[in-house]
Structures are given as structure tokens and as C-alpha cells.
TrEMBL record:
Similarity section: Belongs to the cytochrome P450 family.
Keyword Ribosomal protein set for record: no
UniProt entry tagged with the keyword Iron: yes
GO molecular function, one term: monooxygenase activity
One Pfam family it belongs to: p450
Residue stretches in coiled coil: none
List of residues binding heme: 145
Name of the protein described by the UniProt record: Cytochrome P450
Residues annotated as signal peptide: none
Length: 204
């Protein structure tokens, strides 16, 4: 049950936050949909075999993971021995929480850290698979998320098909600035107020 809930809850949160950022950034939405149209014009569905070709969608998802890691405090760790970090003495067997969200918005590593800019990864080798410590939504090391490959594939496939099937817009009278970005409290960070969008079928 833990594995099932962890896999579905975090993936659902990631899809919602990505759609939030795309609806607030229509240029990114258009680029993602144009890429999908080019790759899958005339196809009924986006399939797993299409995903490696969707390079811009991967940048969108990477930026979404940076701004909205689904579990921002990661899994608690415990120090195996005493150590000192930046002058702070940390005894052995201390429970440690790593704030992946704060790291991913640190202006020391990221230019304009609070803005949604998928293009920042065009010429960057930084990835979210645990090798680059400035972006660790799935954790790092031996105890990183074991479902990373399945999760990323599931989210990419869901997002690609949502953008393939529909054009999206906000309800009448609601602007991008009106979209509430407040986060709900919880181990997995969801949007506090539901995201309401109008879907219009796209020609295929």
C-alpha cells in the first residue's frame, strides 16, 4: 500500500503542478504542444515509444520537478557518525531532513530561481537522477526513490497525452495572475485549491 500510494500521489501532484505552470506560461505550453504535434500528428495516442523524441516536454518536466518536488523534505536520514557542517556540530544518530525544494530554488545555483523557465536546461547537464545535488526531487544515493524510472515515464506519458488531446484555458474571467499557487500541507505537496481548466479537443 505504501508503494502504491507513494507512486500515485506524487505523480498526481507533479501532473497538476506542471499543468499549473504551463497554463501560467502559455509560451511553454505552445512549444510543448507544437513538439507533440510534430511528432504525433495523425496518431490517436502518444505512446511510450514517442517519449524519447519529446525533448522539450522533458525540459518542462525537469523544471516542474525543480520548482515543485512532490516530497520536498525527502525521506528522513540518520547520521552514522558525528560531523560538522558550516560550523554546526551534528551528533551521530541525528535525524536529518533534506529540503530539496529550497536547494532547487537557491539563487547561488539557479538564475531567477522562482521563475518557470524550461529553457534553462537546454545547455545544462544538470539532471534529477541523484548525480547533481542542486536538483534532487527523488533523493540521492542508495536510498533514493526506487520508482524514479516508472514515475517519470508515467508522468511524461500522461502529460503528453493531455497536451495531445486538448487545448487548455482558464475559466472565463480568470487570468493567469488569479491562479492560486498556495501549497497544501502534507508529506506530498499538492495545490491547496483545485486547478480548474477548460479542455477543448485538438485536431489530430
Amino acid at each position: 500500500m505504501d508503494i502504491f500510494i507513494a507512486g500515485t500521489d506524487t505523480s498526481a501532484a507533479t501532473i497538476v503542478w506542471t499543468m499549473v505552470e504551463l497554463i501560467k506560461n502559455p509560451e511553454a505550453m505552445k512549444k510543448a504542444q507544437d513538439e507533440i504535434t510534430e511528432i504525433a500528428w495523425g496518431k490517436e495516442n502518444i505512446e511510450e515509444s514517442d517519449l524519447p523524441k519529446l525533448s522539450y516536454l522533458k525540459l518542462v518536466l525537469k523544471e516542474s520537478f525543480r520548482l515543485h518536488p512532490p516530497a520536498p523534505l525527502l525521506i528522513p536520514r540518520e547520521t552514522t557518525r558525528a560531523c560538522t557542517i558550516n560550523g554546526y556540530e551534528i551528533p551521530a544518530k541525528t535525524r536529518i531532513l533534506i529540503n530539496a525544494r529550497t536547494i532547487a530554488r537557491d539563487p547561488f545555483y539557479w538564475k531567477d530561481p522562482d521563475s518557470f523557465k524550461p529553457e534553462r536546461f537546454f545547455y545544462s547537464s544538470v539532471d534529477f537522477r541523484g548525480h547533481d545535488y542542486e536538483l534532487i526531487p527523488f533523493g540521492i544515493g542508495r536510498r533514493s526513490c526506487p520508482g524514479i524510472n516508472f514515475s517519470v515515464l508515467t508522468v511524461e506519458l500522461a502529460l503528453a497525452n493531455l497536451l495531445h488531446y486538448f487545448d487548455w484555458k482558464l475559466p472565463h474571467g480568470i487570468t493567469r495572475d488569479d491562479v492560486d499557487m498556495v501549497e497544501a500541507v502534507g508529506l506530498t505537496v499538492h495545490k491547496k485549491t483545485p486547478l480548474l481548466l477548460i479542455a477543448t479537443p485538438r485536431p489530430r
